[in-house]
Amino acid sequence: MKLLLSLAVALVSAAPALSVAVWGQCGGIGYTGSTVCDAGATCVETNECTSLLLPSSLRLLPLAHRLFAIRIDYSQCQPSSATTTATSPTSSSSLCPGTRTKFSYFGVNESGGEFGNTVIPGELGKDYTWPSPSSIDYFVGKGFNTFRIPFLMERISPPSTGGLGGPFNQTYLSGLKTIVSYITGKGGYAVVDPHNFMIYNGATISSTSTFQAWWKQLAAEFVSDSHVIFDLQNEPHDIPAATVFSLMQAGVNGVRSAGATSQLILVEGTSYTGAWTWTTSSGNSAVFGAIKDPNNNVAIQMHQYLDSDGSGTSPTCVSSTIGAERLQNATTWLQQNNLKGFLGEIGAGSNAACITAVQGALCEMQQSGVWLGALWWAAGPWWGDYYQSIEPPNGTAIAQILPQALEPFL
Ligand SMILES: *[C@@H]1O[C@H](CO)[C@@H](O)[C@H](O)[C@H]1NC(C)=O
Ligand SMILES: *[C@@H]1O[C@H](CO)[C@@H](O)[C@H](O)[C@H]1NC(C)=O
Ligand SMILES: *[C@@H]1O[C@H](CO)[C@@H](O)[C@H](O)[C@H]1NC(C)=O
Ligand SMILES: CC(=O)N[C@H]1CO[C@H](CO)[C@@H](O)[C@@H]1O
């Protein structure tokens, strides 16, 4: 809207001028006016809101044409101190002063393989899909290195061919391995994430021996790739913390028994592994301090959203300080237990309060030194206009969250 208003202003003052006022046009295809801005403003190339300017006929063009159309060149005088442009990352030292430990693993979730979870086995391209290599390239190009790849246990271990003890579906497994190899081939880390909430084929997984054997079978597929990270289970819930702990310990043992000894393992707790309830209602903090790994390379994966119910379904954040507040108790617990954390999912809306809240969360994490990594939820080709989508080129979180809240913490 800002841009439309400024265009009107620019048209009214169309006579040649020595310099252009703030928000006025100062360059672009077919532009012949002054390219010099008033004092205090800088001429910036921008695509912001450009699609709003397209005639409605253009908006009906096929996708590829519209993508071309929104690349129409346009430059605008912006206040030199403007921080809202999507063109360059916000500086990090002003946001988060002091000594910080950068994340070893920083990136995004890449959804797709877990979509359509009510249709088993489902059809590739219709019920589920795999992440796009171009999305991986985009984030690697910006300096991110870690991608969490959700998939479904019912698709890799079909109930119809022996269930969790049966052979893998080679078609689905090969789809998973293809994207994992693509990521690790680029030097990145691929987090292999059975996105099942500890429920398989409608029933809660309860057998530690079945879970251990399943992980031994899966880890064997990736044994030689040290850039694979094993995320034992996404968001168990409605299971006692102690039961989830036993299953996670069995999973660690299963991975290591496959000979996969170099890789990081992530364990998750009950109550959707929420950081905000880790030390309180979930009961996780009472049991997870005892996790044992013969290779001493395990971290506690937690998730945190910043909307009122912590579900990641509303773009409204509780406050601009809620990110740091919700992580504080978990951070202290990690420090006291000499454990490392990994924030496998964080997400919030593209608005000022949420951006400040995400910055506060990531700042606290880096200042504490106990968090190995963080991943935004989520990229992936099928999110559409979901407010947390960070899928390039124009997922909702690309314009502001990426440059202002994530890139400063690279
Ligand atoms: C294996 O996966 C493919 C691809 O999703 C699917 O078409 C096929 O039906 C699956 N096989 C079984 C036994 O589930
Ligand atoms: C942190 O834990 C204390 C009790 O241990 C609890 O009273 C407080 O509400 C927790 N903080 C948050 C933000 O959940
Ligand atoms: C991204 O751009 C495409 C093409 O212009 C458009 O159809 C789509 O709605 C946009 N997505 C978002 C989240 O803005
Ligand atoms: C917050 C969020 O997006 N959660 C999603 C986690 O992944 C599952 C499976 O894709 C979705 O159903 C949730 O909505």
TrEMBL record:
SMART domains, from UniProt? fCBD (SM00236)
Q: What does the entry list under GO cellular component?
A: extracellular region
Catalytic reactions on record: Endohydrolysis of (1->4)-beta-D-glucosidic linkages in cellulose, lichenin and cereal beta-D-glucans
From which residue to which does the signal peptide run? Answer: 1-19
In this protein, which residues make up the domain named CBM1? 18-78
Q: Name one Pfam family in it.
A: CBM_1
**An annotated GO BP:** glucan catabolic process
Among InterPro entries, the record links this protein to: CBD, CBD_sf, GH, Glyco_hydro_5, Glyco_hydro_5_CS
In alphabetical order, the GO MF annotations are: cellulase activity; cellulose binding
- Give the matching Gene3D superfamilies: Glycosidases
PROSITE patterns this protein is in? CBM1_2, GLYCOSYL_HYDROL_F5
For the keyword Signal, the answer is yes
Hydrolase keyword on record: yes
> Which key words tag this protein in UniProt?
Glycosidase, Hydrolase, Signal
- Tell me its EC number(s), please: 3.2.1.4
* Superkingdom to which the source organism belongs: Eukaryota
Family under the similarity heading: Belongs to the glycosyl hydrolase 5 (cellulase A) family.
Q: What is this protein called?
A: cellulase
